[in-house]
Amino acid sequence: xxxxxxxxxxxxxxxxxxxxxxxxxxxxxxxxxxxxxxxxxxxxxxxxxxxxxxxxxxxxxxxxxxxxxxxxxxxxxxxxxxxxxxxxxxxxxxxxxxxxxxxxxxxxxxxxxxxxxxxxxxxxxxxxxxxxxxxxxxxxxxxxxxxxxxxxxxxxxxxxxxxxxxxxxxxxxxxxxxxxxxxxxxxxxxxxxxxxxxxxxxxxxxxxxxxxxxxxxxxxxxxxxxxxxxxxxxxxxxxxxxxxxxxxxxxxxxxxxxxxxxxxxxxxxxxxxxxxxxxxxxxxxxxxxxxxxxxxxxxxxxxxxxxxxxxxxxxxxxxxxxxxxxxxxxxxxxxxxxxxxxxxxxxxxxxxxxxxxxxxxxxxxxxxxxxxxxxxxxxxxxxxxxxxxxxxxxxxxxxxxxxxxxxxxxxxxxxxxxxxxxxxxxxxxx
Length: 430
Ligand SMILES: *Cc1c(COP(=O)(O)O)cnc(C)c1O
Known about the structure:
CATH topology of the largest domain: Aspartate Aminotransferase, domain 2
Bound molecules: pyridoxal-5'-phosphate
Strand order of the largest sheet: 1-7-6-5-4-2-3
Number of domains: 2
Mean pLDDT: 94
Distance between the termini: 65 Å
């Protein structure tokens, strides 16, 4: 192979996976083995010294998981990736690897509910300070920076308000402060947007969602651009000799691969939230149809959002793919093929109408997930964002009658038929 840059679709089916050299298997084999026999004592020692890369123990490396990691890193244009048992495990590890007590994080307020709780309470317990800012306001990002700020965090497409991040602008603010920008690109996937191309330093995914795409398997992954200078004097936790790895200086020793090596050899080793080979197989399999699926998700979401917007029983529809969206210009720049298929709309009748609408649906499944081949629906105020107070709810763009949809791969006409039934149910008794 070689002197050709293969296209995205080609890489979704080939990256990370060659025919198995021992058996000839063309599909990715599931190496369901906790551990791997060393060639000899010298090889064993060099693996544990991180002098050579080899299979040791599946909490740290596994060939099926490695194929999935390589596939995602390739699609995102990163230097590498490390996979985890879930999206939140990936985020915990990504944070843990670069932060220490006393550090401070500036984050978008428009986030997945679980991430808000994780940043506030999990990182709070580790004495990491935090400020949430309006992601659309560059001045708010700048104003929140302190000398201790070591991370800027946001989602490409904010959940559930549909805020599209001006990645280039926020990346410039981060760079000026010698601080990495980490982006949760779960909703966009690398097919719709590659944040590393716009100046982000690290990308995290819940692979549970669109990457896997079938709602079968939890997984998460961290992709690194390899470009951040961890030896700028602000990140002793990555640059200094590590007592947890016999005095190894990760950035000095591994250069652009330093953060990822520490993420795997220390953080994944110690947190232990490894992705199972079986889930890695299912997630890698899912990625093989990523371009086809994302195109259909977007087309269906456009049709459903247009229907909702034209119906006067419905309040605000926050799909950034609508021509009326305030994010239309940012969508054109960062997500030219469309802003995925998760969005919200408001029922003016509030909480009670939200519940009645959801109960009248038959094709949409009422559950707490997004990015499935099947269409999903939820009422965030009573479920995913239940832990948040009213002020945090409204900062995240959620009202009492807000309904979140994740549009799947069914026929759009059938989805609209189902939503029509849900809206009709509101009129019955009022
Ligand atoms: C689901 C989700 C997460 C968390 O991922 P898990 O795999 O459930 O741990 C993080 N961010 C976003 C945007 C998500 O949708």
